[in-house]
Amino acid sequence: MSAFKPPSSAPFARSATSKFKFGGHVSTAGGISKAVTNAARLGCNGFAMFLKSPRRWQGPPMTQKEIDQFGKNCKELGYNPHTDILPHGQYMINLASPKEDMEAKSYESFLDEILRCEQLDVRHYNFHPGSKLDGDHREALERLAKNINKVHKETKLCKVVIENMAGHGNLIGGSLEDIRDVIEMVEDKSRVGVCVDTCHAFAAGYDMLTEESFNKFWNDFEEIIGWEYLSGIHLNDSKAPLSSNRDLHQNLGQGFLGLEAFRNVANFEKLQGIPIILETPVGEKDDDTVYGQEIKILEFLEGRDSDDADYIATAEKYLKMGAAERKEHQKKFDEKQAKEAKAKAKAEARAIKADDDSKKRKSKGIDVLVTKRTRSAKR
């Protein structure tokens, strides 16, 4: 019984036999066309990239030279920009914001990025649905749908792909129902899709730990949203436990999802044909060869049963590697749960006391009234 050992350095050979478009989120340093060569260097069959800085509202326009080189690289290296590439939107975009200035600024960047996709002949664009801030949840969903409808009218071909979120705070999109409701309000449904992030789903309470729970999640997805909308996957393990509502990505097999969740992915036919993108940690040195190694792990998992000896050894190996971080985050989660339970108990006790006091005051008031009426009758 021997654990799988992925290659430790680039370049990584791109698989010609894998049935999945496994890939990573690659760098565009030096120009947008570099994303294609970086993807090939890591052995990606699908890939993601930012279209401009993810933390600045504006970026310099792409030169025609870079646009042409991007297309040339895709052709020479065998990437179809219509099906293999899933760019990621800016982190700051919040189309659900109740603040008009933030919504307007977000829309301007949103439109700019989709127009960049169309310049590159890329047909999909993934983005975070945003936050309601202190506003109404339903109204936030309506604003998001309104802005998607607006951008459809100002662009031609690119499909906007909504990513599910971890359910933290005021963020929308933490439930499948949120995304369904937005899609229902989108007029051109042929130009809207969904990207499922495995870490986000797990953090939001969707269990994928076993084959049974994995299949249940996708059955729920089909029933609530529909397979026709699935346009991509972000493949990440989770540093935090189930239902933690914490967006903490972990390397494959080292987190609370474990390698079994990804063995299920690598053997689920309905996920073939769409970009499956790694966003796992690359370390302090931004060593993107992690993606190349993890792509090979995923390709190794294809066709493997849960009782395969090499698979079991590999799963145990990666589980041990992440043990310390899991223990740390489990402790934080347990402490948070205990604190919330204590606060809830106190609130319930206060409510019971307030109710009892109200009943006593009411009872006392009735007694006083009866006494007054009795005295009045005697007179």
From TrEMBL:
Classification via Gene3D superfamilies: Divalent-metal-dependent TIM barrel enzymes
InterPro entries for the chain: AP_endonuc_2, AP_endonuc_F2_Zn_BS, Xyl_isomerase-like_sf, Xyl_isomerase-like_TIM-brl
Cofactor(s), by name: Zn(2+)
GO MF annotations, alphabetized: DNA binding; DNA-(apurinic or apyrimidinic site) endonuclease activity; lyase activity; phosphoric diester hydrolase activity; zinc ion binding
Top-rank taxon, per record: Eukaryota
Basic and acidic residues composition bias: residue spans: 326-359
UniProt keyword annotations, A-Z: DNA damage, DNA repair, Hydrolase, Lyase, Metal-binding, Zinc
HAMAP family: Nfo
Gene Ontology terms: cellular component: mitochondrion; nucleus
UniProt protein name: Apurinic-apyrimidinic endonuclease 1
Transmembrane segments: none
GO biological process per UniProt: base-excision repair
Assigned protein family: Belongs to the AP endonuclease 2 family.
Span list, region Disordered: 326-379
Domain named Xylose isomerase-like TIM barrel: residues: 37-298
Gene: APN1
